[in-house]
């Protein structure tokens, strides 16, 4: 085997070990007792499967299935809203022509550099005036308004890689602008849509700050907020059950990525191609 190949595979293996170590650490802690967790060992000396059953019912009055349902509900609606709104806005920027188009697209791209913390207070004041604080509406409704410029940019770049000759052929056949969008262009954007859906789901699922600010009722808590409930008023933590539930909380993200990774890679790889 050539030295270059050995070096390449060695770097890849070492990088993989570094990346997978946090997962192994999480799995190990999920099966340890509270006494073993502070010890400097990756895997437990004795497996405590009871951490999963204890963690599942650790929150008084609720099982973790309730919090998983809340997270799935918010994440699913957020993905749907992101796909619908981002696709329409992206098609407008990529295929239509309107006054000050480049300026508006430039402003959209500038918001990519705007930290979320800057808009946090104005958004809270706005949603407070709508009487939405304490509900899931602030976490869902904005996604139907294309609030993420990253997804718009992603789909715009993908649409620009689709030959415009397809649009012209459809026009000759009498297809309208709406027909071209929904029958020709957008169906070809499946890889970009799947990439958008994966990112949107993971970011919504892992969103702790927004959910902590707007959700005040335990019955509406999501998985990240439920994990925080393991920390009681005396700062005593049942570490084993908490890690067990944290391990379960990352499984949906892993499963979705593994199922759609083919389209995910294709969507990222072809995003920068322009027609």
Describe this structure in words.
- By secondary structure, this protein is mostly helical.
- Helices cover 67% and strands 0% of the residues.
- It has 13 helices and no strands.
- It has helices spanning 3-30, 50-56, 64-95, 101-110, 116-129, 137-140, 149-160, 165-172, 177-185, 190-205, 209-214, 223-228, 239-269.
- Helix 1 runs antiparallel to helix 13 (239-269), helix 3 packs across helix 10 (190-205) and helix 10 (190-205) runs antiparallel to helix 13.
- The mean pLDDT is 88.
Q: What sort of overall outline do the alpha carbons produce when their principal axes are compared? A: globular
Helix and strand run: HHHHHHHHHHHHH
Number of helices: 13
Average pLDDT works out at 88
Number of strands: 0
* Beta-strand proportion: under 5%
Termini, distance in Å?
A: 41 Å
* Helix/strand class: mainly alpha
Please give the share of residues in helix: 55-70%
Short description, anyone?
By secondary structure, the chain is an all-alpha fold. The protein contains 13 helices and no strands.
What tags apply to this protein structure?
mainly alpha, 275 residues, 0% strand, 13 helices
Helices and strands, with pairings:
Blueprint: H1 3-30, H2 50-56, H3 64-95, H4 101-110, H5 116-129, H6 137-140, H7 149-160, H8 165-172, H9 177-185, H10 190-205, H11 209-214, H12 223-228, H13 239-269
């Amino acid at each position: 085997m050539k030295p270059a190949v050995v070096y390449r595979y060695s770097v890849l293996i070492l990088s993989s070990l570094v990346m997978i170590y946090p997962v192994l650490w999480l799995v190990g802690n999920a099966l340890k007792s509270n006494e073993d967790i502070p010890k400097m060992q990756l895997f437990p000396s004795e497996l405590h499967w009871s951490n999963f059953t204890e963690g599942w019912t650790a929150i008084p009055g609720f099982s973790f299935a309730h919090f998983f349902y809340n997270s799935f509900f918010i994440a699913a609606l957020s993905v749907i809203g992101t796909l619908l709104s981002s696709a329409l806005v992206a098609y407008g920027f990529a295929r239509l022509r309107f006054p000050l188009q480049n300026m508006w697209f430039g402003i959209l791209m500038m918001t990519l550099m705007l930290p979320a913390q800057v808009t946090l207070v104005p958004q809270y004041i706005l949603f407070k005036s709508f009487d939405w604080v304490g509900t899931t509406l602030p976490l869902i409704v904005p996604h139907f308004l294309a609030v993420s410029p990253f997804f718009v940019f992603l789909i715009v770049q993908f649409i620009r890689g689709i030959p415009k000759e397809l649009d012209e052929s459809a026009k000759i056949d009498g297809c309208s602008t709406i027909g071209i969008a929904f029958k020709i262009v957008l169906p070809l954007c499946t890889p970009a849509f799947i990439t958008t859906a994966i990112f949107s789901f993971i970011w919504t699922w892992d969103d702790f700050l927004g959910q902590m600010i707007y959700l005040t009722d335990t019955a509406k808590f999501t998985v990240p907020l439920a994990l925080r409930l393991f920390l009681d008023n005396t700062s005593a933590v049942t570490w084993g059950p908490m890690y067990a539930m944290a391990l379960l909380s990352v499984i949906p993200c892993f499963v979705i990525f593994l199922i759609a990774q083919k389209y995910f890679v294709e969507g990222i790889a072809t995003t920068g191609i322009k027609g």
